[in-house]
Design goal:
- With 311 residues, the chain is of the alpha/beta class.
- It has nine helices and 17 strands.
- Strands 3, 5, 6, 8, 9, 16 and 17 form a seven-stranded mixed β-sheet that branches. A six-stranded parallel β-sheet has the order 12-11-10-13-14-15.
- α5 links the parallel β11 (171-175) and β12 (191-193).
- α3 (127-140) packs parallel to α4.
- It binds NADP nicotinamide-adenine-dinucleotide phosphate.
- NADP nicotinamide-adenine-dinucleotide phosphate (NAP) binds at residues 38-40, 128-129, 132, 151-152, 154-158, 175, 177, 195, 218-219, 241-242, 260-262, 301-303.
- Residues 10-309 form the Enoyl reductase (ER) domain.
- Pfam families: ADH_N, ADH_zinc_N.
- This is NADP-dependent oxidoreductase.
- It comes from Nocardia callitridis.
Length: 311
């Protein structure tokens, strides 16, 4: 089967021929139809989980994937051949990801059936980015009329987060450069702010003299986030998805939040699929690209929503 692999940490990804995996006890094999691309794919290729999880090489990249169960191992009780499923293809040992024609997952991993109304391409875009956005909104406990600034709003997580925060009743301020602003408005942003036009703090401080309530930051360095936190009033909420929050400094100002690690388990994924099936959340797909042409999008910057590989 064809797959996108790296042969060692920090190697350049390549398309390679790999053996079709066989499911062992309590595991299923998925014939993948689509795989969502995330910044974490490049981080894994670079070795972010080296020493955290065992890895097999060549390491097949890709976490998010959707497809049809083509084989089940002994003692599988939750799934059957033919089920259309979406999940996170990251269980130990790492290296058996979703950028492949087939992958095997334990049946108790993050793996759920896809409602008929949702195409596999849309489902594959959900687990990491949509799940993280849902986790952020749940953790912050947004209340109607909260003012929420989303930094990095135009990418995968942000394009879900703008929608979910708006649905929760917040006044959403989204960062966006140039033509991306219109898309943010359509997804539910009340205001957009162009971070390339000058420091965000300077652009927003005058409009919010009492401070904003919640900052969700998906991109900033610790130094940049410390500066932006000055926009949030004492007692407010700040979350980073890139580990940039200094939690001691937050507590000193009686603030909530911290560095979020998305749990991304099956019940949350099923809830998100339900919201998409009900039409409450739009899956923001920017581009679909065949697997064999996917090397150029791994680790790419400047995302406008989600990129999905078709398999
Ligand atoms: N902790 C967790 O559990 C968790 C879960 C999911 C994701 N993450 C991490 O969260 C980050 C975001 O993920 P993602 O999937 O949304 O990434 P993404 O799809 O690549 O989106 C990032 C977006 O940020 C914009 N951006 C870049 N620099 C910016 C700046 N200085 N100010 C405002 N916007 C900026 C980019 O567009 P422009 O450059 O064109 O402006 C892009 O649209 C990644 O580092 C990812 O690994 C963590």
């Amino acid at each position: 089967m064809r797959a996108i692999v790296v042969r060692k940490f920090a190697a350049t990804p390549e398309v390679a021929e790999m053996p079709v995996p066989e499911p062992g006890p309590r595991a299923v094999r998925v014939q993948l139809e689509a795989a969502g691309v995330n910044p974490y794919d490049q981080k894994m290729a670079d070795g972010i989980l080296d020493g955290v999880l065992p890895h097999d090489f060549p390491m097949i990249l890709g976490i998010d994937g959707a497809g049809i169960i083509s084989s089940v191992g002994p003692e599988v009780s939750r799934f059957a051949v033919g089920d259309r499923v979406v999940g996170k293809f990251l269980t130990p040992p790492a290296g058996h990801g979703s950028f492949a024609e087939y992958s095997v997952l334990p049946e108790d991993a993050t793996l759920v059936r896809i409602p008929d109304a949702i195409p596999s391409i849309a489902a594959a875009a959900l687990p990491t980015a949509g799940g993280t956005a849902q986790d952020l909104v749940d953790a912050a406990k947004i209340e109607p009329d909260h003012t929420v600034l989303i930094v990095g709003a135009t990418g995968g997580v942000g394009s879900f987060l703008v929608q979910l925060a708006n649905t929760a009743g917040a006044h959403v301020i989204a960062t966006a450069r140039g033509e991306a602003a219109d898309r943010m408005t359509r997804l539910g942003a009340a205001e957009t702010v162009d971070y390339s036009a000058g420091p965000l703090r300077a652009q927003l401080a005058a409009a919010y003299p009492d401070g904003i309530d919640i900052l969700f930051d998906l991109v900033s360095s610790p130094e940049a986030l410390a500066d932006l936190t000055g926009l949030v009033h004492d007692g407010g909420i700040v979350y980073s998805t890139v580990g940039a929050v200094d939690e001691d400094r937050l507590r000193a100002r009686d603030m909530r939040g911290g560095n979020l690690q998305s749990s991304g388990r099956a019940p949350e994924l099923a809830r998100l699929l339900g919201r998409v099936a009900d039409g409450d959340v739009v899956v923001p797909i920017d581009a679909t690209i065949p697997l064999t042409e996917g090397l150029s999008v791994i680790g790419a910057t400047g995302a406008r929503g989600k990129t999905v590989l078709t398999i």
